[in-house]
UniProtKB/TrEMBL annotation:
This is elongation factor 4. One of its GO terms (molecular function) is GTP binding. Gene3D superfamilies: 3.30.70.240, Elongation factor 4, C-terminal domain, Elongation Factor G (Translational Gtpase), domain 3, P-loop containing nucleotide triphosphate hydrolases, Translation factors. One of its GO terms (biological process) is positive regulation of translation. The gene is lepA. SMART domains: EFG_C (SM00838). Keywords: Cell inner membrane, Cell membrane, Elongation factor, GTP-binding, Hydrolase, Membrane, Nucleotide-binding, Protein biosynthesis.
Length: 598
């Protein structure tokens, strides 16, 4: 097809507003996927993803569509991940498109994620087509939601499409609008090749499969390509389109979307946002907007069974092949032994990796509480970036500590504004802005230390608003604060993996609640266990766990053997996620206790 009949678009939506269902419907309506092959939600095909109802990885689909004008069009749908942790990837997918369907649940309205994605789309100059989804629901209020979109986003909604992805209403109108409202790509076939990578994944047979949009020029099978950020060169083994299964083609032109396989060893070598050009006829400049995704949240991971350290290393190596944003370094903890300090884009990314390590690699891990990166100016020497609280230099060796701040934007029904303000304030938030929208809905913005957000801010926001509020955040920079290292001592030994960095004014309360929590979580032993919180040499809170009085088997009166066995088994199970720290068995929950302080 000529460039004039190509349309590249994505769907932006808040979680659960119907993005995947609509994508499926479009694939069906265009005959791209036969009805009988239609697995529910074709585009979200990772197991984890489906379970959590989130979109983690980007994928693309090429559809052939015969429009009402009688012409044959190619519509490329580029799917975007639906979570703030992956907003860089979202921005690169949007950069590969000329337009976007903005899907808003007509029974809900605009949410924080809708807004964040719309701003990204506007930055990329996309044509935005508003779609009010779920109009089949009795609670749908398309008129109210239209007004909301107009007021918050300033987008004309007179032409908004009323749709039900579930019932198949409005699908034809959506397809026609894509053809008529979204501009065709520019015809830059005669220029040197520049293709934007918007996704990649590792395949153990073919190496990395790279998804891209050709922005300028032409790419052919067998071409020698260069990745402009890394400078590395490869021969194309396989070139194709996604319909949505991979179908090989000989060449792809400006405006088209496809994939290559070129024996690339890890996704790190073909990063999202990088530009593909030809080795023998390279473009002068790469496409704008390339950045390397940086981990923002860190934690320690230790196998409960020390013998499995090599397995953990191997598993991380494998995951890394497919995840350029994951970082890991060996860490030796005096309390926990050998493990890794791992870095993630955000909390969801962290949870996904942890879950995969446990599920797919069958590892039992003790995971320490998440931390952020602190910027420390020492009295002498160069600036340090500290991702592990136990590495914070002592006060006499440091001039200042700075911590990352984010702007958090929330959208909530009016009645929860008070409780969300209170939450933000107790998390050291600085009020920025509040606006009333339609029908008692409010936007609320705060600047917060990222450290306070990565604990349980999201869960608290959800529970305080009964699930009605939504939030987004983005990094705004580093700020100096009077921060201190809080050490936890179990049985008089400091436990490095429980150390944390807290604001001086909160240290006393955090220390007190933490030792109380640990007292609940650590089981009784044959001896008394002192628990303390300290700043430097100063103990600020202390408790103890009394010694165990009775042996668990004493109950059995020495008689019933099978009952004895059962009890022992039960005990063993309870011990599964324990780490022996000195002579004390500490359960996994204890390392996360800081996330559950009230
Ligand atoms: P996503 O998170 O944006 O990808 O949303 P999904 O497509 O996974 O949809 C979330 C939920 O809303 C699922 O249970 C869908 O079945 C449901 N859903 C999607 N579209 C519609 C619709 O038009 N009407 C109704 N009633 N439910 C819908
Ligand atoms: Mg989805």
């Amino acid at each position: 097809v000529p460039v004039a009949r190509i349309r590249n678009f994505c769907i932006i939506a808040h979680i659960d507003h119907g993005k995947s269902t609509l994508a499926d419907r479009l694939l069906q309506a265009t005959g791209t996927v036969a009805d009988r092959d239609m697995k529910a939600q074709f585009l979200d095909n990772m197991e984890l993803e489906r379970e959590r109802g989130i979109t983690i990885k980007l994928q693309a689909a090429r559809m052939n569509y015969k429009a009402k004008d009688g012409q044959q069009y190619v519509l490329n749908l580029i799917d975007t991940p639906g979570h703030v942790d992956f907003s860089y990837e979202v921005s690169r997918s949007l950069a590969a498109c000329e337009g976007a369907l903005l899907v808003v649940d007509a029974s809900q309205g605009v949410e924080a994620q809708t807004l964040a994605n719309v701003y990204l789309a506007l930055e990329n100059n996309l044509e935005i087509i508003p779609v009010l989804n779920k109009i089949d629901l009795p609670g749908a209020e398309p008129e109210r939601v239209k007004k909301e979109i107009e007021e918050i986003i300033g987008l004309d909604c007179s032409g908004a499409i009323l749709a039900s992805a579930k019932e198949g209403i409005g699908i034809d109108e959506i397809l026609e609008s894509i053809v008529h409202l979204i501009p065709a790509p520019q015809d830059t076939v005669s220029q040197p090749l520049r293709a934007l990578i918007f996704d990649s994944y590792y395949d153990s047979y073919r190496g990395v499969i790279v998804y891209f949009r050709v922005m300028d020029g032409t790419v052919k099978k067998g071409d020698r390509i260069r990745l402009m950020a890394t400078g590395k060169e490869y021969e194309i083994d396989e070139l194709g389109v996604l319909s949505p299964n991979q179908i090989q083609v000989g060449e792809l032109h400006a405006g088209e979307v496809g994939y290559v396989a070129a024996a690339i060893k890890a996704v790190e070598d073909a990063r999202v946002g990088d530009t593909i050009t030809l080795a023998y006829e390279p473009a002068a400049e790469p496409l704008p907007g390339y950045a390397q995704a940086k981990p923002m949240v860190f934690c320690g991971m230790f196998p409960t069974d020390a013998d499995r350290f090599p397995d953990l290393r191997e598993a991380l190596e494998k995951l890394k092949l497919n995840d350029a944003a994951l970082s890991y370094e060996p860490e030796t903890s005096s309390a926990m032994g050998f493990g890794f300090r791992c870095g993630f884009l955000g909390l969801l990314h962290m949870e996904i990796v942890q879950e995969r390590l446990e599920r797919e690699y069958n590892l039992d891990l003790i995971i320490t509480a998440p931390s952020v990166i602190y910027r420390v100016t020492p009295v002498k020497g160069e600036i340090l970036y500290i991702d592990n609280p136990s590495h914070l230099p002592d006060p006499q060796h440091r001039e200042k500590i700075e911590e990352p701040y984010v702007q958090v934007d929330m959208i909530t029904p009016e009645e929860y504004v008070g409780t969300l303000m209170e939450l933000s304030q107790t998390r050291r938030g600085i009020f920025k802005d509040m606006k009333y929208l339609t029908q008692g809905r409010t936007t609320l913005s705060y600047e917060l230390p990222l450290a306070e957000v990565v604990t349980d801010f999201f869960d608290q926001m959800k529970s305080r608003s009964r699930g009605y509020a939504s939030m987004e955040y983005h990094l705004i920079g580093y700020r100096e604060n009077p921060l201190v290292r809080l050490d936890i001592l179990i049985n008089n030994d400091p436990v490095d993996s429980l150390a944390m960095i807290v604001h001086r004014d909160k240290a006393y309360n955090v220390g007190r609640s933490l030792v109380e929590k640990l007292k609940e979580l650590i089981p009784r032993h044959q001896f008394k266990i002192p628990l303390q919180a300290a700043i430097g040499s100063k103990i600020i809170a202390s408790e103890h766990i009394p010694a165990l009085r009775k042996d668990v088997l004493a109950k059995c009166y020495g008689g019933d053997i099978s009952r004895k066995k059962k009890l022992l088994q039960k005990q063993a199970k309870g011990k599964k996620r324990m780490k022996a720290i000195g002579t004390v068995d500490v359960p996994q929950e204890a390392f996360m206790a800081v996330l559950r302080l009230d």
